[in-house]
Amino acid sequence: MSERSPAPGGLELVQSLVNTLNIESGADSLDTAQGRARFGLDEEDVPGARELRESLRVALLAHAGHPPHREVTPLGELLTAGPLLVTVDTGDGSAALAAADEGPLLSRVAAAIAQALVEGTWTRLKACEAADCHWAYYDRSPAGRGRWCSMQVCGARAKMRRYRAK
């Protein structure tokens, strides 16, 4: 949906996962072997990945100041199953959070969110305001108040609806 550039660092994984579902068309790339392979998922992993995706979408909607699109398992509850470890570089002594197990998608998402928290970028990852979109995008606007994944599509539609309502 969006012409915006991908989110930085590990947030690109989160953005890609949320954007596996095109709400407007109903197409879900997790239904295909190629779509699942992108995330290292088997067919039996898909229900958990979908649950994680929709919990992430609710968090991204909250980042943009919007209510949940539906009832979901709270993201914090899901992330408890993706334990993190503190790693310390022996060369420079720098510390970082890393997934305890790099394999599962949940662990990789938990590590990406933790790293984004440290970098201060987590709240810049948002979901589009448009109810027929909710596409994830990284808000690079100076004030951090972006509302749509694309001003040319979702933003233009919203402005046209407001204009017609007048």
Automatic annotation (TrEMBL):
Domain (Zinc finger CGNR): residue spans on this chain: 124-166
SUPFAM superfamilies cross-referenced by the UniProt entry: Jann2411-like
Gene3D superfamilies per the UniProt record, alphabetical: Jann2411-like domain
Membrane spanning residue stretches: none
Protein's name in the database: Zinc finger CGNR domain-containing protein
Source species of the chain: Streptomyces viridochromogenes Tue57
